[in-house]
UniProtKB/TrEMBL annotation:
Alphabetical UniProt keywords: DNA-directed RNA polymerase, Transcription
Organism phylogeny: unclassified sequences, metagenomes, ecological metagenomes
UniProt region (Disordered), positions on chain: 1-30, 45-73
Name this protein carries in UniProt: DNA-directed RNA polymerase
Compositional bias of kind Basic and acidic residues: 64-73
TM helices/strands, residue ranges: none
Organism: marine metagenome
């Protein structure tokens, strides 16, 4: 067995740690107002069911863990999140429904 050890540089450790963490990228800006409404409506539904908001001013305080009161209009929160690019979404295939023969 080989008992020799190789010291790790702190740069190597930070590179490994940053590679493990998912990088949060902003979603592309939505050009279609219909898609914007659909994505915001789905996000508002998630917020009503208890999802945590992604806007920085509505997140928990780092030291106390207390959250600010949620605004009464969760639709507005959802629209702000979509506008800020914080919501990821997927589009269905453009091929459309298959025809039956």
């Amino acid at each position: 067995m080989n008992d020799s050890t190789t010291p790790l540089n702190s740069q190597d450790q930070t590179q490994e740690a940053s590679a493990d963490e998912p990088k949060q990228q902003q979603a592309p800006e939505i050009q279609s107002r219909f898609l914007y409404v659909d994505v915001a409506a789905q996000r508002a539904k998630q917020l009503r069911r208890g999802s945590l908001p992604r806007l920085s001013h509505l997140q928990a305080h780092p030291e106390t863990g207390l959250r600010p009161d949620m605004p009464p209009k969760l639709e507005r929160v959802a629209m702000d999140e979509v506008k800020a690019g914080l919501i990821e979404y997927e589009l269905p295939d453009a091929s459309g429904p298959k025809e039956k023969k």
